[in-house]
Amino acid sequence: ILNVEQSPQSLHVQEGDSTNFTCSFPSSNFYALHWYRWETAKSPEALFVMTLNGDEKKKGRISATLNTKEGYSYLYIKGSQPEDSATYLCAFGDYKLSFGAGTTVTVRA
Amino acid sequence: DTAVSQTPKYLVTQMGNDKSIKCEQNLGHDTMYWYKQDSKKFLKIMFSYNNKELIINETVPNRFSPKSPDKAHLNLHINSLELGDSAVYFCASSQVLGGQETQYFGPGTRLLVL
Questions:
Q1: CA angle at A23 for the pair B60 and A14, rounded to the nearest 5°
Q2: Rounded Cα distance, B61 and A27, in Å
């Protein structure tokens, strides 16, 4: 199981503000980096799978970048809305994923 | 329409009992997983099956035994339950498409051992 770290552990954002947070992973033997969105009392839901250095993916107001050489990925939320409140997990690996502990985002109206 | 389903959703039981959690996926995926969400909220892989064959078996007490009767089902049986087994257990399934693999998670089973 590989060490995947996410920071910060939690953050509070005012509605309408933009925010971002980090996932760090081992830079050697990179295969894929996954981002999941996990709302309370629901299942983790896949957002992005990123495989190439310099990859940028976007889904609505949420986007992610990937730097495999230095071992980090950023997730950005533009113009945060209350429905963006969730825990965002990143996971590293092939079919055997190592998950970070998540960044819990709370958007205040 | 639930893609990955687990039963039961909640399970409260006494120490020493044997219990099973069932998982079914209707996505036609070849690979299924069991994860345990630990006390620090990490999702830790326990087992994975591909087409009914065990492919991942992490360091898990042998009181935990997965069983895959077909590729749409992966059940988890736990013998002699201990207090430390209390956790949320998630089932997932996945398929590789275009060289990329996405895992789809079930809703979780909240196990409490008293």
A1: 120
A2: 31
In chain B, the residue whose alpha carbon lies closest to the alpha carbon of A2 is: B44
Q: Residue A27 has what DSSP assignment?
A: S
Q: How far B36 CA lies from chain A's nearest CA (Å)?
A: 11
User: How many residue pairs bridge chain A and chain B with CB atoms within 8 Å of each other?
Assistant: 52
With contact defined as beta carbons under 8 Å apart, do B64 and B77 qualify?
Answer: yes
CA-based nearest distance A85→chain B, Å: 17
Chain B partners within 8 Å of A36 (Cβ): 105
Which residue, among A23, A34, A44, A33, has the nearest Cα to A87 in the 3D structure? A44
Is the CA virtual torsion B27, B33, B79, B12 positive or negative? negative
d(CA B63, CA A65): 41
Look at phi and psi of residue B99 and say left if phi exceeds 0, alpha if psi is from -120 to 50, else beta. left
Question: pLDDT tens per residue, chain B (114 residues)?
Answer: 669 999 999 999 999 999 999 999 999 999 999 999 987 788 999 999 988 888 888 878 899 999 999 999 999 999 999 999 999 999 999 987 767 788 999 999 999 999
Residue type, A18: S
The shortest CB-CB distance from B103 to any of A42, A46, A100 is to A46
The answer to whether A103 and A12 are in contact (CB under 8 A) is no
Distance CA B44, CA A102 (A): 13
